[in-house]
Amino acid sequence: MEKYIIKGGTPLAGEVEISGAKNAALGILAAAVMADETVTIDNLPDVSDVNVLIDAIAEVGATVKRTNRHCVDISGKTITSTVADNEYIKKMRASYYLVGALLGKYKRAEVSLPGGCNIGSRPIDQHIKGFKALGADIKIEHGMIIAQADELVGNHIFFDVVTVGATINVMLAATLAKGNTVLENVAKEPHVVDIANMLNSMGANIKGAGTDVIRIKGVEKLHGSEYSVIPDQIEAGTFMLAAAITKGDVLVKNVIPKHLEATTAKLYEIGCTVEEYDDAVRVIGNPSLQATNVRTLPYPGFPTDMQPQMAVALALANGTSTITENLFENRFKYVDELTKMGATIKVEGNIAVIEGIDRFTGAEVSALDLRAGAALVIAGMAAEGYTMIDNIHYIKRGYEMFEKKLQKLGGNVEIVDSDKAVQKFKLKVG
Ligand code: EPZ
Questions:
Q1: Beta strands in 239-366 (DSSP E)
Q2: How do residues 354-372 score in pLDDT, each as one tens digit?
Q3: Model confidence at 387, in pLDDT bands (50, 70, 90)?
Q4: Closest CA to 340 of 291, 392, 389
Q5: CB-CB contact of 140 with 124 (8 Å)
Q6: 30 and 170 housed in the same domain
Q7: Residues 6+ apart with CB under 8 A from 311
Q8: Residue 230: pLDDT over 70
Q9: Could you tell me if 171 and 127 lie in one domain?
Q10: What is the layout of strands, in order, in the sheet containing 249-253?
Q11: Would you state the pLDDT for residue 115?
Q12: What angle (nearest 5°) sits at the alpha carbon of residue 311, between those of residues 310 and 316?
């Protein structure tokens, strides 16, 4: 089984190019099936979640042509089925965006219930509430979401919680509903805005994405488009924290600094320097990190997807810090793994109390979900000695060539799949 092996202690330095945003790409790919003409999507991250969704889209009969690892042409004209129930779909949560897309276009969709990282219960009641408000009949049978409508009619929908998935899914369906839809208490993440912009490039009429209220005028049909995915704010934030944790100096390129402001603010609070440029940020670590407190919130608050990575930095800071996780009820699974590396973290409910230590020691640890795994990698980068991380398939869901990007910054990390490879790595790095 493939693992990461890391020899820690080298400050990361140099430049890293950020890939396209996974969580924007997934909604954009689903939106592409809503046109009968060709949609070209560029700057896709080459990560397994994206590749799985592309396979699922091909499975329902869309014409899919990969021009390269980062670019795909999709045409929904050849779709023969509104049933998406296969091994691809079951693997990945965002496959449920096919419900909004297929329901919007064909007024029918049958999609396997979502999988995804186990960070909490992850209900879909708000998705269902939105689809029903548009006139759809929803059933959950045999592990499938079955949605159908004679017609979809615009409505005024107020989400009970701020939810990225439901905001995107209901926005997809409402795009082709008759009349006007108003979505209130919506998610404002950059990827919600990116998907709205992509739909508008296909002829949709969506206003207000990125604010608390999204207004959609239903249109008859959508047309082809060429669209490029925004940079991944979470991949960028992960490398920013890696620079801080290894006391390095990293220029993170191909980013939108505005999307990183919550992470930048926290890096300042713990004593790092962050220089902002048009499409890059430079992070200079501080030999002595300071404790602080973090509360995860929907955008523009501190992102829950950066919570484990921030915990690693706070575990090495002087003093006591707290992290309050307000979005998911099971997002501290990495704490037991970080404890094996010497961290002193106590979790009480949705609050982690972190007592800073001088440095981690390398250990054999497990990636338990996507961002927890990424956090362990950057912890290993700062640890004394060797760290081995298994279950790296979680990490590959959301990080393109993670080890190669870290190697380019001077990180001693490789993927190994045998004891022989481990020995070879240890001989090489000493
Ligand atoms: C998206 O998940 C992201 N995934 C997650 O990123 C991210 O952590 C999350 O948004 C929050 O930003 C993708 O975009 C594929 P939510 P999603 O619906 O849409 C509750 C990563 O690491 N809720 O915004 O599933 C839910 O329980 C992944 O890339 C309901 O109550 O998140 C949670 O408490 C992990 N009812 C809160 O809303 C619903 O119908 C936020 O969930 C839906 C959600």
A1: 249-253, 273-276, 280-284, 293-295, 320-324, 344-348, 351-355, 364-366
A2: 999 999 999 999 999 999 9
A3: very high
A4: 389
A5: no
A6: yes
A7: 323, 334, 335, 338, 345, 352, 354, 375
A8: yes
A9: yes
A10: 13-17, 249-253, 280-284, 273-276
A11: 64
A12: 100
Rounded Cα–Cα distance for residues 173 and 31 (Å):
10
> Residue 164 pLDDT more than 90?
yes
Compute CA distances 145 → 90, 288, 381, whole Å. Answer: 12, 51, 42
Tell me how many domains the chain contains.
2
Q: Which residues participate in catalysis according to the annotation?
A: 117
Nearest to 367 by CA among 396, 407, 325, 330: 396
How many percent of the chain have pLDDT more than 90?
A: 93
Ligand 1 centroid–CA 189 distance in Å is 11
User: Is the same domain home to 104 and 82?
Assistant: yes
Its domain, for residue 262, covers 3-19+231-429
Of 228, 251, 271, the one marking the end of a domain is 228
Per-residue confidence band for 20, with pLDDT thresholds at 50, 70 and 90: very high
- Tell me the CA–centroid distance for residue 106 and ligand 1, in Å: 26
Distance 303 CA to ligand 1 centre (A): 11
In a shared domain, residues 272 and 201 = no
Mean of pLDDT values over 392-403: 97
Contact by Cβ (8 Å): 369, 394:
yes
Q: What does the mean pLDDT of the chain come to?
A: 96
Query: Which token pair is 165?
Result: 């998935």
Q: Who lines ligand 1 at CB under 6 A?
A: 22-23, 26, 93-94, 117, 119-127, 161, 163-166, 187, 304-305, 327-328, 370-371, 398
246 and 162 in a single domain? The answer is no
Residue 400's nearest CA partner among 159, 235, 191 is 235
Does this model's pTM top 0.85? My answer is yes
| 317 and 413 in a common domain | yes
Judgement on whether residues 194 and 222 belong to the same structural domain of the protein:
yes
Domain boundary among 228, 258, 291: 228
SS3 call for 182: strand
pLDDT in tens, 181-229: 999 999 999 999 999 999 999 999 999 999 999 999 999 999 999 999 9
Atom of ligand 1 nearest to the CA of 119: 35
Residue range 317-330: average pLDDT? 97
Q: Are 168 and 21 in contact (CB under 8 A)?
A: no
Look at the block and give the residue holding tokens 């909604």.
27
The CATH number of whichever domain residue 391 belongs to comes to 3.65.10.10
Q: Are residues 201 and 253 in the same domain?
A: no
